[in-house]
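Run log // design_07
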């Protein structure tokens, strides 16, 4: 659930040319000294910091809800299920499994190494940078942080300056629960982010738009820094003619209008036949009325647009096609009504850029094959959805397309599953996280082979001068695997 870019969505704005002064050099030196001292490596330290995160969430629940209300007018129920509860679940999972995750992983050996000890060690990268967006300003800071802590890293957090309420909590309250020598927060906008990225980090985790992702990747490349990019894109939603349309409408409407549509995995447009569109529209209207009442503007369950800039961008998109449902807006409240657009053109901005608001265009196709072709000629999306009573239709869309995640007959409930990796592919991102996958993301998998300093008589066949007999024996030893652990070390 990532925030989007400046033009097409709501993430980090343009990163401006940096001044020569580097105010973060001393901070990073202190973090690197703390990491090099080995402070973050023991399991006991990691557990203590994860427990600190748990206390932060429990003791500041009202403060967090108030910040989410201030930034997005986010309903308490949405704030709970999409922000606080998911973060609590990630912390609990890490605490319950940390020792298992940290264990060396034994690997298969060949006969030539049968007396050696071979394993994979999960070691922390060092000092990691986490840059988060504004649309889920708690979730998208803390979930990566949980994995970074569990993996034993020091961390610099950069929350979004757009979600000012949550930025303040992350900067002023969260540090009270963590080791200040190992974790710090940097606040500010594009200028501060640009200066920050000038520094060398050991890992960068960025959630934002593809456009800014390219800037982050370019900055990382100067230091050959590994990174994860959680980006976005336009998520297609195919609706088959053979559907329970009210069920489809209920699910699509909720996932589209949750958080006022400011969700990177929300269905961004519907592909269906014109006949299905005419049946789907009244079902969508019933869903909107059931969820938000006759006047959604007065509903306590509908969030608002993050700021004036994004409100005006969305207001401009309302002029694409025709508003079959909604279309109203109120600048003073930054309110955009749950809106469904029809008669849109493929070249319209609403079909070209990520919407990141409560607007759902419907684009007509005549067959599933046409829908698949439409999807495949565009960048690979972060998520893709297909609705049909026929499982063969859903599986055909799954088999013949590519996306970061896929939902058949539902929306982005996969986001709630720590057992599932989440991340983009191609233009929508690289790398995955959630649950153990976040621990893995922030861990370097170090291949290790420990051999005895003795037993040289068994090693001699490797050395020159080479003979046909020794070569044949070495080939045999290398080709045959040992199916059980054996080590004299």
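design_07 sequence
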């Amino acid at each position: 659930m990532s925030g989007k870019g400046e033009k097409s969505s709501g993430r980090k704005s343009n990163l401006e040319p940096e001044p020569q002064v580097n105010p973060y050099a001393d901070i990073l030196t202190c973090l690197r000294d703390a990491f090099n001292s080995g402070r973050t490596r023991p399991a006991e330290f990691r557990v203590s910091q994860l427990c600190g995160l748990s206390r932060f969430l429990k003791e500041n629940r009202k403060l967090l809800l108030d910040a989410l209300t201030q930034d997005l007018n986010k309903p308490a129920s949405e704030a709970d299920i999409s922000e606080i509860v998911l973060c609590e679940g990630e912390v609990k999972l890490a605490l319950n499994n940390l020792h298992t995750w940290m264990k060396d992983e034994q690997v298969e050996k060949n006969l030539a190494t049968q007396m050696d000890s071979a394993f994979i060690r999960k070691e922390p990268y060092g000092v990691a940078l986490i840059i988060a967006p504004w649309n889920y300003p708690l979730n998208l800071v803390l979930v990566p942080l949980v994995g970074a802590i569990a993996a034993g890293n020091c961390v610099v957090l950069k929350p979004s300056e757009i979600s000012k309420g949550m930025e303040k909590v992350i900067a002023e309250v969260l540090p009270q629960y963590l080791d200040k020598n190992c974790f710090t927060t940097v606040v500010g906008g594009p200028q501060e982010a640009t200066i920050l990225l000038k520094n060398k980090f050991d890992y960068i985790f960025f959630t934002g738009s593809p456009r800014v992702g390219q800037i982050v990747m370019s900055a990382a490349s100067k230091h050959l820094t590994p990174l994860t990019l959680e980006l976005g894109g336009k998520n297609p939603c195919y609706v088959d003619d053979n559907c329970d349309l009210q069920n489809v409408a209920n699910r699509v409407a909720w996932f589209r209008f949750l958080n006022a549509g400011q969700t990177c995995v929300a269905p961004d447009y519907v592909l269906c036949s014109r006949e299905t569109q005419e049946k789907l529209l009244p079902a969508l209207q019933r869903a909107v009325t059931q969820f938000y009442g006759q006047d959604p503007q007065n509903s306590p369950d509908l969030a608002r647009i993050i700021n004036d800039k994004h409100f005006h961008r969305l207001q401009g998109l309302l002029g694409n096609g025709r508003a079959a449902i909604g279309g109203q807006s109120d600048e003073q409240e930054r309110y955009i009504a749950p809106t469904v657009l029809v008669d849109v053109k493929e070249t319209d901005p609403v079909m070209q850029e990520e919407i990141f608001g409560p607007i759902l265009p419907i684009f007509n196709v005549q067959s599933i094959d046409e829908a698949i072709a439409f999807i495949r000629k565009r960048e690979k999306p972060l998520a893709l959805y297909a609705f049909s009573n026929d499982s063969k239709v859903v599986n055909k869309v799954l088999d013949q397309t590519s996306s970061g995640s896929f939902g058949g007959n539902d929306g982005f409930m996969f986001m709630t599953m720590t057992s599932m990796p989440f991340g983009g592919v191609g233009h929508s991102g690289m790398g995955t996280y959630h649950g153990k996958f976040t621990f893995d993301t922030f861990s370097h998998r170090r291949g290790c082979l420990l051999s005895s300093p003795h037993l040289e008589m068994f090693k001699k066949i490797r050395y020159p001068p080479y003979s046909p007999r020794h070569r044949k024996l070495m080939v045999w030893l290398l080709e045959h695997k040992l199916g059980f652990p054996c080590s004299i070390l």
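The chain has two domains: 25-231+433-444, 236-423.
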